[in-house]
Write a structure and sequence with these properties.
mainly alpha; 4 helices; 82% helix
Length: 133
């Protein structure tokens, strides 16, 4: 499903329904064919339309009312739910970003400390080897 931020509300509501309307006739024709060979051939020929229709149908069908009509309220409630879910996901990602920054700082400090200890040991070994000579 396309990113909600990429579409205006109107576009978000219109896109799946437009695809649904455009490809519905192809789907109905496909479903009306009874001969399996002809049905397979038709399905191969119109695979793109049937795929687009099935994807749009999954989005559009749950928003029909008892009369089979589409309601703007149902679309709007889904949009509101998705918007709130996206906001909560963004908040989680933000807190994860803070945690990642802290972890990177810790990793840097540990590596820096390891390098410091190695240099210190090397210096002590040089001093010690210089004393022995």
């Amino acid at each position: 499903m396309p990113c909600i931020a990429a579409f205006s509300q109107k576009k978000f509501l219109e896109v799946p329904y437009t695809v649904y309307k455009e490809c519905r006739a192809v789907s109905e024709e496909y479903n009306s064919i009874t001969n399996p060979k002809k049905k397979d051939a038709f399905g191969e020929k119109h695979r793109a339309e049937l795929t687009r229709f099935n994807a749009a149908k999954k989005i559009v069908e749950p928003h029909r009312n008892a009369n089979g009509k589409f309601t703007l309220k149902a679309w709007q409630s889904e949009l509101d739910g998705l918007s709130s879910q996206a906001a909560s996901d963004r908040a989680k990602l933000s807190s994860l970003g803070d945690s990642i920054a802290i972890m990177k700082t810790i990793i840097y400090n540990v590596q820096h400390l390891d390098n410091y200890e190695e240099r210190r040991e090397n210096t002590q070994q040089r001093k010690h080897s210089g004393e022995l000579e």
